[in-house]
Design brief:
Strand content: 5-15%
Low-confidence stretches: 1-31, 186-206, 335-339
Structural class: alpha+beta
Number of helices: 19
Largest sheet: 4 strands, antiparallel
Shape: elongated
Mean pLDDT: 81
Amino acid sequence: MAKLATASQFLCPLLFVLLLLCPCNAFYLPGTYMHTYAQQEEIYVKVNSLTSIETELPFSYYSLPYCQPKGGIKKSAENLGELLMGDQIDNSPYRFRVNVNESLYLCTTNALNEHDVTLLKQRTRDLYQVNMILDNLPVLRYTNQNGAIIQWTGFPVGYTPDGSSDDYIVNHLKLKVLVHEYEGGNVKIIGTGEEGMGVITENDKNTMNGYEIVGFEVVPCSVKRDPDAMSKLNMYDSVDKVNCPLEIERSQPIREQERITFTYEVEFVKSDIKWPSRWDHYLKMEGAKVHWFSIMNSLMVILFLAGIVFVIFLRTVRRDLTRYEELDRESQAQMTEELSGWKLVVGDVFREPTYSKLICVMVGDGVQILGMAIITIVFAALGFMSPASRGMLLTGMIILYLFLGIIAGYVSVRLWRTIKGTSEGWRSVSWSTACFFPGISFLVLTILNFMLWANNSTGALPISLFFAIFALWFCISVPLTLIGGFMGTRAEQIEYPVRTNQIPREIPARKYPSWLLVAGAGTLPFGTLFIELFFILSSIWLGRFYYVFGFLLVVLLLLVVVCAEVSVVLTYMHLCVEDWRWWWKAFFASGSVAVYVFLYSINYLVFDLKSLSGPVSAMLYVGYAFIVSLAIMLATGTIGFLTSFSFVHYLFSSVKID
């Protein structure tokens, strides 16, 4: 053994040095497969749905009278996440030739009718944005507001000048494409984006030389041109360049019988930005100090609660148990008559709770949601869920949720067996677990989808996708939940450490309702979450990118610890006042954080989303906020319940009672 230890001490440093000296290849995981373009190679821009922070109702790009491609409109393949988010990516007539700066004509529309004018004015006043994509990069626009440079994705459909009742359409684009010259090399690149996976090796060095697209910017403007003269041109004929912005008199108004001419300029600029860094501009988020402040604030809460738990375990509980165990049997019987607090409920603490089936179902669903959240955020923090892969995050969450049904079934049925002492009825518990949270979410989403259908929004799910999601639910999640439930019936039953009396003990009257304390307990977990919640809401509803998943992972772990501590403290407090009905209170002590999340979401709607207009937009917001809050309640409530169950089981297993 000594020789083996000496050899290992020698070999480990040697192996480390060899690993440092050996040649290796570099991998780039997030994003898409890198594509290089040859000089003057033609590339086309894609267009996504029109979006607005005013209404949150996406619409198709070609729902407005824009120029269409010569070969007709062709939709790009979309994953499940993109469809659920309302993305509709189409081809467009905007054509570039690599490193060729030019100003080109697209088309001149027919005379606008009343419907066209009404639609254009409505989209303009609702602040709808046109979202273009080049080589998987969204177009960026920079504006100067009060001396600060603000970055936006997309550009407006039109604008209404201050003090004017007329609306003007954006019909000329000054586009800038940043390119980086690539000369190949001994590099491997693995992509996870929409172009699929690919590897570039030294064998491809000669073919990969060319230009990478590392930036895409736009300056939109409105230009009034002579429609009769312009309509004589063909698509992609050259036109004069324009200096933007122009005076109001030279801009294109939105009026009936107007014929609108669409043109664009493109300029290629060489850049030192390398392809793996091209998303840095999009993912740069301000407020890192705020994130750290949130984490430090959460740590203070954790330390405070940890101190209380420390006192409960090492001083109160351990002292009482030691004193109790040192007495002989007769003294214990005499002492029991004089005891007060948690020791008096020893015969009732594991009494079956009301609605026992429901708590089993909610805990099972909570485990499923919590597992999905942790795995998704870990993978996102490691870079596997890049925003370059649109819809990947949502698709991954759905797939994880479906396959984690087996764990949900196992946990709910095993808890059911523990409470009931038998496996009878496990199929009903498994079915309820498989249908509880998905069923509520499906019902809410169906109602919201009918609203989107009524408004002809691209956010409405097609009926085929509806049935596809339904099939995934019943063909994957439900069977796996039933399999997990069957495994739960075969697992070892959790035995209670003490017997339950036949007659329940009377609970002493209290000066204040116990649920008041439970509801107030949710403020502590909410304190660890609300700052990050603000950034998440802003990214969802204000069209910003959220990619600080490292911070989010830390906050999630802190939230788990706080929920566990809060629930243990509240459970112990209830047992001390001889209240043995701790099951639901342990669940909602931490699960009540969802109430504060929902109220904060409403506060965000009223005070931060003042621009959100219309009852449909408000209903969409409230519907999505309800689903998220329900998921948070199930996940955090499960953390608190399982921790409290373990605490109570350990506490009373330490008491020796015949």
